Amino acid sequence: MSRRNPHEPSAFWLWLVRGALLFHPSRLRTEYGMEIEDVFRARVRDARRVTGVGKLLVFQLREVKGLIRTGLKTRWEGRAAGAASVNPPGGQHNREKNGIMDGTFADLRLALRGLRKAPGFTVSAVAILTLGIGANVTAFSALKVAVLTAPPFPEAEQLVSVDLTRTENNTERVSRWAYPYVRRLADWPERLVDPVASYRHGVATLTGIGPASQLATEVVSPGYFDVVGYPLALGRGFRGEEADPSGPYRVVVVSHSFWQSRLGGEPSALGRDIELNGEAFEVVGVAPRGFSGFGGSASLWVPLGSYAVFQPGVLQQAGNHVAWVVGRLRPGATVAAADAQMEVLGQAIAAEWPRPDSYGAGVRPFTELWTNPNARKASMLLAFAAGLVLLVACANLAGLLFTRARRRVREGAVRRALGASRWRLVRSYLLESLTLAALGGAAGIALAVWGTSLLAAAWPDQFLQGSNTGLRVIDPEGLALDARVMAFALLISAFAALLIGLIPALRISSFNITDHLKEGAGAAGRRTRLAGVDPQIVLVGAQVSLALMLLVGVGLMGSTVGRLLGVDEGFEPDRLLSFEFSTPQAVPRLDPRDEAMWRSHIVLSAQFDDRFQQRLSAIPGIEGIAFSSGAILKHFEAVLGVRIEDSESGMTDAGSVGAVPVSDNYFDLLGIPIVRGRAFDQSDGLRGPPVVVLSQTAASRYFPNQDPIGKRVTTFFALPGRETAEVVGVVGDVIYTGPDQERWPVAYYSLRDRSGPRYATVRTTGDPNEAIRLIQDELYALDPTVAMRNVTTMNRLIAGSIGDRRVIFWLLTIFATITVLLAAVGTWGVVAYSVADRQRELGLRIALGAQGTRVLRFVLRRSTITALIGVVIGLAGAWAGSRVLEAFLWNTSAHDPRVFLGGAALLFAVVLGASYLPARRAVRVDPVEVLRAAE
Questions:
Q1: pLDDT in tens, 425-474
Q2: Which of 135, 144, 142 minimizes the C-alpha distance to 389?
Q3: Burial call 546-572: b when 16+ CB within 10 Å, e when fewer
Q4: Pick from 340-349, 631-640, 652-661: least confident
Q5: Which of 284, 321, 440, 671 holds its CA 20 to 30 A away from the CA of 336?
Q6: How confident is the model at residue 730 (pLDDT cuts 50, 70, 90)?
Q7: How buried is residue 905: exposed, middle or buried, by Cβ count under 10 Å (0-12/13-18/19+)?
Q8: What is the spatial distance between Cα 226 and Cα 232, in angstroms, rounded to a whole number?
Q9: Residue 760 has what pLDDT?
Q10: 3-class secondary structure, 716
Q11: Would you state the torsion angle of the CA atoms of residues 173, 175, 180, 182, taken in this order, to the nearest 10 degrees?
């Protein structure tokens, strides 16, 4: 006599189920009655394994009650449908519409209830989508400011940059204008670019309003604010006569933020005087809110007529290229016509001011210039990487939903048996995925708020300026969640909902009802294959491929960053502090037209340097301070044409050189090696003969295979009679223009002989940041009219010189880490489900004598093959996609085999590790328990 299976429901409960079926239509009882009883038995068996007696009783009562309620609802809806046939068409339409909405809300409640019952799954799914959507929203914010932002000016399509070009050796480059050329442009008859304006970036020292401070300025021609196009917030711009340098025109337009913070934001600020570089300037206007000049950082604007306060004599120098020129096309004028007119102007300038590198001119529209090429490439690269993150997240979550749907296949079969259409099942799964996407999208937006703020803080200086323009085309403050970003977040959330829910919904809803009601869970495992392939395996393989592409990108960028940081800087950067400081007001401005004033400027500036050095050297914790007129890792203040002594032809032109006047102790304090000869000393001033120290690159370029000591070098912008200097030393090369740039030839002069802007470098015994306050106090005590600016450590300057690569590297690292973890989690989930789903088969294998290692290999075989296929496809994709990185690589091949093979090995090891942990469960399967549970 056979004994009843203890896991089966009793005859009493089966009798109650048959009674509940009486509430259903007779057709459904006839076709699906036995199948529904089978489903009830299977659900009771599953519940008995995980619940106690009391909870099992409640569970069976709930199942019977659900059958009764479903039957009553089905009969009621049948009567309602019959009544609707005698109603007018309008009423019928309204009821059908309400029925559809009621069904949708019912499915939505069902989806919410299902997610609430599985909090672990829900939290995991939302977290995965949060990472994917948050990464994409952040990347889109970068893409918005770098690619999708138009020039923020009225009628921007009429704005043009008027370029001066210089051609040498068949190579044309865009140059700034000298002011005599600007005047020729302004006087050109029937000009198609009108209004037109010039501007030059500069710095002014503000005193009389708190401690002395240096503020970014723009020295502009009268039509400047007409070109901008926005009305001033208050007051007026500059008049035509205020461009005359001979007049006492000391007027200033201040930025809106300066007006608010320094002048109280009151209209009475107009007419007030502020002190700039020791002279009173009348405030005549307030710039539009948010406008900070075409250069992007100005707080003050002054007219050409006040130029003598900043740098006397520049307006008269035809060889001093200092200004950018912008303008607006006249109504009806075209860019092509204006460009042709400027070409004629360029020929006129070349004829009037002949040079070895001939002049030309042209125009470029702002709409084409308003981008930074490297920022554009980087933002598109990051958008692509973020898209890969989202695809991996969606593939991972689709796999989780597929597993979840497999476990709910009986539920779907019952719903189909009770009359639910396939579309109804698909809709219920899509509503569940849409709910997850909505939650993930909301959390992703919150994550993006944090991500965009970090990205704005880390935005490199290399991504701000336009190419060959004086325009600042990117504002990192634009990295904010505006309407466009929010619309993108909604769109990407909806896309993610479809991506994660549609495939599982279509596959599960397509199962044969009768087979699944009769065969139970086993049918799910056999019929979820597509063309003989398990979709979950395909999803895992896709995750591995996409993750490997990002991993290779990280390896290539990491190699570049490592090589750049390993470049020999040419000096010892540790414990160095760098800053710029203004010229004391007691020192007369350098005027190349007045030799006596020029000499006085050089002598008094050197004397101030000596006093500053004496005061700082007496402070504990400070080893010393050195001065220069050129900042390391920033730029040269002067790039001059150079002539060298030749034994046969005398002085000959030798190209250009970076001219850097330095203090006597500059090389010693920075640790720049003296290769040959000597450094400067106190005798190398205006009382002695002019001398020069060359860098190794300059010495080898100008005097190849010769001893440069004693040779003579000529550069201009020196006191009359001191243009030619004798070479007394050669020093090592220093990275003035960045670690990835070719070493530029440098000619060092003594600050006691030549002068320029002042940069200071301080070496401390400890943390240089702790010395900033002491230096500021000593400088203020020495001269309260002197202000510090751009204070930073040398190590930070070095890191900032490769800031574009570092940002890309860290973002790719974050994205790659997310995708690798998701690939590992996805692999773990598939293997774990496979082990649980095939426990009976594994139990039989072990019962028949299979060894544990053999069972382990059997379980790992599929994931290993999947990982290998994913790695191969990922390597092919990375090989093709690595070209996108080429613009940012340095001394690194885009197809470096070590990076590709290393990334593949790492990812393969991660996938195998994720497979091994759940596969170990297969070895520990007890065949007796498994076979008994399957009875």
A1: 667 777 778 888 888 889 999 999 999 999 998 899 889 998 888 899 99
A2: 135
A3: bbbbbbbbbbbbbbbbebbeebebbbe
A4: 631-640
A5: 321
A6: very high
A7: exposed
A8: 10
A9: 95
A10: coil
A11: 100
Calculate the alpha carbon distances from 379 to 141, 177, 450, 481, 824 in Å. 9, 32, 18, 16, 28
Given a cut of 50, whether residue 15 has pLDDT beyond it is yes
What does the pLDDT look like over 639-678, one tens digit per residue? 788 888 776 656 677 788 889 999 999 999 999 999 999 9
Token pair 């086993």: residue? 522
Question: Given this model, what pLDDT does residue 867 score?
Answer: 83
How do strand 251-254 and strand 300-303 relate by DSSP bridges? Answer: antiparallel
Axis-axis angle for helices 89-117, 422-458 (nearest 10): 60
Residue bearing tokens 């914010």: 141
Residues 484-520 have pLDDT tens digits of 999 999 999 888 888 887 766 666 555 554 444 444 4
Task: Return mean pLDDT, the chain.
Answer: 82
Whole-number pLDDT of residue 182: 92
Within 491-575, strands assigned E span none
d(CA 337, CA 492) in angstroms, rounded, equals: 44
CA–CA dist 536, 542 (Å, integer)? 10
**Exposed e or buried b per residue across 131-151, where buried means at least 16 C-beta atoms within 10 angstroms of its C-beta:** bbbbbbbbbbbbbbbbeebeb
Q: Provide the 3-class DSSP secondary structure of residue 365.
A: strand
Going from the C-alpha of 137 to that of each of 130, 396, 527, the distances in angstroms are 10, 19, 38
Kindly state the tokens that stand for 103. 């069904």
Measured CA to CA in angstroms, residue 561 lies from 98, 356, 460, 557, 802 at distances of: 61, 39, 14, 6, 8
How far apart CA 592 and CA 607 sit, in angstroms, is: 20
Cα dihedral across residues 834, 822, 502, 865: positive or negative: negative
User: Which among 320, 367, 371 has a CA at the least distance from the CA of 164?
Assistant: 320
